[in-house]
Amino acid sequence: MSVATSLPRPSPRPARPRLERRPSLFWLATLVVASLTGLTVARLLGHAQAAAARWGSMRPTLVATVDLAPGAVVGAADTALERRPAALVPRGALDGPAEGQTVAEPILAGEAVVAERLAPAGLSPLAAALPPGGRGVAVPTGAGTPPLQPGDVVDVLVTFDPDAVGDGEPTFPVARSATVVSAGDEAVTLAVSQEEASRVAFALTAGVVVVVLSAGR
User: Which class is domain 55-120?
Assistant: First the structure.
């Protein structure tokens, strides 16, 4: 009895991709993909160049990292150098350190530090907190004075002896919307105009002065 031996059948040969069987189609597809990639890169580059032309080149700019109030002395951690588009940088913005300089006008965190908002060298922090042409006058505080802090806005009232003013109002303001630049236990220093400084000085010697907290300018 003979035993039939079966030989393994050869597995079917996998079909080659159509592109491999037709090299011309493969290279045509490669060319199309390369062309699309080039067009995309060119378009992105064009947008970048247009943005650069619109905003200008980048330049180093000193930026406040915290809110800086008038009279504050700039510390090492209060500012940082950032690169910003030249078109967005205000005129007079610093591109170097300002450590040790005194702030003359408020600078908010994130704003560029402009030279005009810093006090000239040699001014004390208190003098730097005064507006241009302003005067600082100290007014004694008493039991009737509300708790004040720098930045508060107040009116200064004076009261004279009713017999001395006749039919006139005995109490009236000698300074309005004055800004508190310094507050101590016994007196507050107010930023007033030159005319108001004279009136407040006279009121302090001739009447009773009261500082009244205001809601703002």
Answer: alpha beta
